[in-house]
Amino acid sequence: MSSPSESIATRSMIYLGMDVHKESITIAVLPAGAKTPTRLDRLANDLPKLKRWLDRLARDGELRVCYEASGAGYVLHRAMLEWGYACEVIAPSLIPKRPGVQRKHDKRDATDLARLYRAGELTAVRIPSESDERVRDVVRCRETFQHEILKSRHYILKFLARRGFVFREGTNWCTPHLKWLQHLTTDASPLARHDRLVFREYHALLMYKLQRRDELDRQIEQLALLPALAPMVGRLQCFRGISLHSAMVLATEIVDWRRFERPAQLACYLGLISREDSSGDRTRLGSITKAGNSHCRHVLVQAAWSYRHRPQTSVDLARRQQGQPPSVITHSWKAQQRLHKRFNHLSYRKRPQIAVVAVARELVGFVWATMQDVDVAEYQAA
């Protein structure tokens, strides 16, 4: 009769691939020595029922679970860890695909996940803590309002253009333009009565979005003072073009900068490296992949535009650099000199839109080097 320690040591490994939806979860059960799944079950997306199902299955072996990152979030992953089961969330864009397979459904997706997970061919994503996720969602909410403000501005300009009202005394959204728009909402407005009603609604919607964005900005300023975020945000703001909001986006989205061993890995994660289609002696590079985190990629490309100007330390940049390590300030000045030359060199041969992406890719290297001194253990403890 075998001892309990021997039975635990000889327990087989069971791999589970889960295709998770809002209402259902399709699970493929693939033991370590099986060629095909021994079970393909469809369960309701209900955590108590799922726990009972897993507890029964765990009697036959040790479970290893995976599912794709999606809008379902990390609730299932955190529940799995609480129940004592190993679980990983897989990056969907890095799942190997077979070109000849033209069928896709839940059972096939779950089977492929279990098979590839057992083979070690899947890439897991970093799971943020609940506090990290909440702060990140506040920053993302501010980005959403910024997009909504742009939409409202388009509504106003296009509506007025259809009625023949075009502001020609300066650029749009400058102070005279804003006063002109405010005048159009008054009773002295040259707009017709019904047009004035429509315009007032569009204008009120824009004002509401601006008010909520400003309130979110105040909240983000307070969050940036948290001990967990302040060191990262302070260092990031030392670079030209990276304001408080941009620094908060980078800090909350990337969090642990040391998980990238080289700057090229971070650039790949941000989708700033070129596509490649090479074979034999032929090397062909295309546009950037745009894979990975689009939030960070956007703020870095926007920051890269500032390097088309000659290197200088503005009043605002000097204020942001106060109290920061001298080595970081020196590094940011080197970045200005290097990236300004890089932009001018590339813009002679290529379009500015292409040159600025190359500058953003090099800016990643400078930022990565600066953030390697941040104590990740201290951040995680906070």
Describe this structure in words.
- With 382 residues, this protein is α/β, with parallel strands linked by helices.
- It folds into 3 domains: 116 residues, Nucleotidyltransferase, domain 5 (2-Layer Sandwich), CATH 3.30.420; 93 residues; 146 residues, no CATH class.
- It has 15 helices and 7 strands.
- Strands 3-2-1-4-5 form a 5-stranded mixed sheet.
- The radius of gyration is 26 Å and the shape is globular.
- It starts with a helix and ends with a helix.
* Coarse shape: globular
Order of helices and strands: HEEEHEHEHHHHHHHEEHHHHH
Mean pLDDT: 92
Structural class: alpha/beta
Provide the gyration radius in Å: 26 Å
Q: Flag low-confidence runs.
A: 1-9, 377-382
Number of helices, counting only DSSP H or I runs of 4 residues or more:
15
Indicate the percent of residues in helices.
40-55%
